[in-house]
C-alpha cells in the first residue's frame, strides 16, 4: 500500500507552500495530542502510567515545535505570512487532540490500545512522507527525529497494555482497531455527503432556479410596463385647465 501511495505523497509534498501548511497542521495536531495526554496523566490512578503519559506529552510538544518551526521557515522562504500555528497552552485539558479522544470514562487498557494504534498509524504515515522528501533534507530530518520517538511510543504503549490487561490486550486492540475504522468511515461519509450536497445544489440552481428567475423577470416586465406616452388630446385638456 505504501508503494502504491508513494506517487501521490510525492506530488502532495512537492509544492513548498502546501508542504508548509501540512507541517503547521501537524504542529496543531501534535500539540492537541499533548494536551490529551496530560489529561490522561491527571485521571489515571497508575503512577507508572502517569509518568509515561507526561513524558509522552512532552514529546508531542517537542514535535509540535519542530513541525511549526519548519513550516514557518518554509513560508518565510516563500515570502508568505506565517499563521500562528499551534496554541502554546498545551497543558490546558479539554482540547481536541488524538482523533477527538475522550479521556474521561475511558478504561486504562482501552486508552493504551487506542494510543498504540494511533502512534502506529502516525509512524506509518510519517515514514511515507520522509521517503518522498529527498528534495527537502531539512523537512526529512524533522520526520526522522519524530519517527524515533514514535517507535518508543509504540513500544511502551503495547508493553503497558500487556502489563495492565494481560488476558485482554488482544481484544482491546481489536476493539480499538474497529473503532478507528468506524470513525474513519464516518469522516469519509461526511466528506462525501458534503461534496454530493454541493453538486446537487449546483445542479438545482442551473436546472430549476435559473429558469424560474428568468420567467419571473418576464412576468414582472409585463405587469409593470413602465411609463406610457400621454395622448395629445389629454395634453391639450390639461393645458386648458391651467
Report what the structure shows:
This protein is mainly α. It has two domains: 2-166, Up-down Bundle (Ferritin), CATH 1.20.1260; 200-235. The chain is 78% helix and 0% strand. It is built from seven helices and no strands. It has helices spanning 2-12, 16-43, 47-78, 108-131, 137-164, 169-223, 232-241. Helix 3 packs antiparallel against helix 5. The longest helix has 55 residues, at 169-223. The chain is extended, with a radius of gyration of 30 Å. The N and C termini lie far apart (94 Å). 29% of the residues are buried.
Question: Could you write a compact summary of the structure shown?
Answer:
The chain has helices spanning 2-12, 16-43, 47-78, 108-131, 137-164, 169-223, 232-241. With 242 residues, it is mainly alpha-helical.
Ordered list of secondary-structure elements with their pairings:
Blueprint: H1 2-12, H2 16-43, H3 47-78, H4 108-131, H5 137-164, H6 169-223, H7 232-241
Rg calc: 30 Å
User: Care to count the β-strands?
Assistant: 0
Q: Kindly report the oligomeric state of this protein.
A: single chain
How far apart are the termini? Answer: 94 Å
CATH topology of the largest domain: Ferritin
Q: State which percent range the strand residues make up.
A: under 5%
Number of helices: 7
Task: Identify the overall geometry.
Answer: extended
Helical residues, percent: over 70%
CATH class of the largest domain: Mainly Alpha
| Count of domains | 2
Uncertain segments: 84-98
From the coordinates shown, what is the CATH architecture of the largest domain? Answer: Up-down Bundle
CATH homologous superfamily assignment of the largest domain: Ferritin, core subunit, four-helix bundle
Mean pLDDT figure: 79
Amino acid at each position: 500500500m505504501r508503494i502504491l501511495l508513494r506517487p501521490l505523497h510525492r506530488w502532495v509534498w512537492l509544492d513548498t507552500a502546501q508542504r508548509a501548511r501540512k507541517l503547521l497542521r501537524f504542529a496543531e495536531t501534535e500539540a492537541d495530542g499533548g494536551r490529551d495526554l496530560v489529561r490522561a496523566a491527571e485521571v489515571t490512578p497508575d503512577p507508572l502510567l502517569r509518568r509515561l503519559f507526561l513524558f509522552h506529552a512532552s514529546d508531542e510538544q517537542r514535535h509540535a515545535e519542530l513541525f511549526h518551526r519548519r513550516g514557518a521557515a518554509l513560508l518565510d522562504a516563500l515570502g508568505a505570512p506565517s499563521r500562528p500555528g499551534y496554541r502554546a497552552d498545551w497543558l490546558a485539558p479539554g482540547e481536541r487532540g488524538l482523533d477527538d479522544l475522550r479521556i474521561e470514562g475511558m478504561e486504562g487498557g482501552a486508552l493504551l490500545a487506542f494510543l498504540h494504534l494511533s502512534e502506529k498509524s502516525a509512524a506509518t504515515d510519517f515514514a511515507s512522507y520522509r521517503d518522498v522528501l529527498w528534495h527537502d533534507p531539512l523537512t526529512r530530518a524533522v520526520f526522522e527525529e519524530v519517527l524515533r520517538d514514535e517507535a518508543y511510543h509504540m513500544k511502551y504503549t503495547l508493553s503497558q497494555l500487556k502489563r495492565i490487561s494481560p488476558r485482554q490486550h488482544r481484544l482491546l486492540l481489536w476493539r480499538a482497531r474497529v473503532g478507528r475504522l468506524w470513525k474513519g468511515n464516518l469522516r469519509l461519509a461526511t466528506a462525501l455527503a458534503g461534496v454530493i450536497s454541493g453538486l446537487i445544489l449546483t445542479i438545482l440552481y442551473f436546472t430549476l432556479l435559473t429558469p424560474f428567475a428568468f420567467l419571473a423577470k418576464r412576468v414582472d416586465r409585463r405587469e409593470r410596463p413602465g411609463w406610457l406616452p400621454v395622448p395629445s388630446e389629454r395634453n391639450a385638456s390639461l393645458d386648458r385647465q391651467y
